[in-house]
Specification:
Layout (H helix, E strand, L loop, with lengths): L13 E8 L3 H9 L1 H7 L6 E7 L6 E7 L5 E12 L3 E5 L2 E2 L3 E2 L5 E10 L2 E10 L2 H9 L2 H18 L4
Antiparallel strand pairs: 1-9, 2-3, 3-4, 4-5, 5-8, 6-7, 8-9
Family: Belongs to the AHA1 family.
Pfam family, one: AHSA1
InterPro entries: ASHA1/2-like_C, START-like_dom_sf
Length: about 160
């Protein structure tokens, strides 16, 4: 059974967003796994991602730096836990490369891409270590911010990215 067909119940401290995208999942997977592409859409409207590094293997680095219009910077670093091309990515900030505990884990993320006859059902889940972390992420604007990032991703894979 592929990961996309597993009946996934919400995690206890989960936030999620889903959308049907008019693009094949291989394009969306590329947009998630090629640093130059991810840098074009990662973050809410007005944000840039001037730094993006990833080593696409289990335990490999996932690192971004988002910059807000006011110059504030938001670094993230973690590792990939699972990579199933072009169906699923799982990463966490609980570790940094070398499986070194990060000191303050905030969340693990799962992105699933389900084929729907040329379209893709995209689901991103942010699973937090505590209800306090989930509430903090929601207060930071999870739905709006991840929704705006998803808008930018959709624009890239439907208008601005060759097959």
């Amino acid at each position: 059974m592929s990961p996309q067909t597993v009946d996934r119940k919400p995690a206890p401290y989960e936030l999620s967003i889903s959308r049907l995208i008019d693009a094949p999942r291989r394009k969306i997977f590329r947009a998630w796994t090629e640093p130059a592409l991810l840098a074009q859409w990662w973050g809410p409207h007005g944000m840039t991602t001037p730094e993006c590094e990833m080593d696409l293997w289990v335990g490999g680095q996932f690192r971004t730096l988002m910059r807000a219009p006011d110059g504030a910077e938001y670094p993230t670093m973690g590792v990939f836990l699972e990579i199933v091309a072009p169906e699923r990515l799982v990463f966490t900030d609980a570790f940094i490369p070398g499986w070194i505990p990060s000191g303050k884990p905030f969340m693990s993320a799962e992105v699933t891409l389900e084929d729907r006859g040329g379209q893709t059902l995209y689901t991103a889940r942010a699973m937090h270590w505590s209800d306090e972390d989930r509430q903090a992420h929601e207060a930071m604007g999870f739905h709006d911010g991840w929704g705006q990032s998803l808008d930018r991703l959709v624009t890239l894979v439907t208008d601005g990215m060759p097959d």
